[in-house]
Amino acid sequence: MNNRLRCSPLRRRLIGSLLYGAAAALFVPPRRAVAQTVSIEVWTGPSCSCCHDWIKHLQANEFVVESHEGGNREARAHLGMPVRYGSCHTAEVSGYAVEGHVPAREIHRLLEERPDAIGISVPAMPRGAPGMDGPAYAGVRDPYDVLLIARDGSAHVYQSYR
Hints:
Blueprint: H1 9-26, E1 38-43, H2 49-59, E2 63-68, H3 72-79, E3 90-93, E4 96-100, H4 104-113, E5 119-122, E6 144-149, E7 155-161
Parallel strand pairs: 1-2, 4-5
Antiparallel strand pairs: 1-3, 3-4, 5-6, 6-7
């Protein structure tokens, strides 16, 4: 028999392990494909339907929501979110304030990047933002910005939606 075709048991095991590892790596799902739930606490405006629609948006995007009817002004003040960036609901996630109709995508980004900030905000209530995109708005979409609110109260555009 040809010496090149012979393989020691140790060598066969090593080659098998390498092949098995390479094959297993092909079947590992991408990082974002693995569902990870994140807890978020939300304080709504009194009897606000768009707040509840935003909560449904969060739940559809890997968030476990604990909601409170009312109390958003107090929560905003407690979290240090300046009133000028206010909206109809306030949330807290991992120590960050989330104000208004912020897309879940930007909340996930905030949690991945972990900037030194108070949080993020979509001031007012732009049509087309999550929770403001139901049938009552007839598909109308206002351009809006998600703002990153710095600890000194200043803000810069974190993401634009046009």
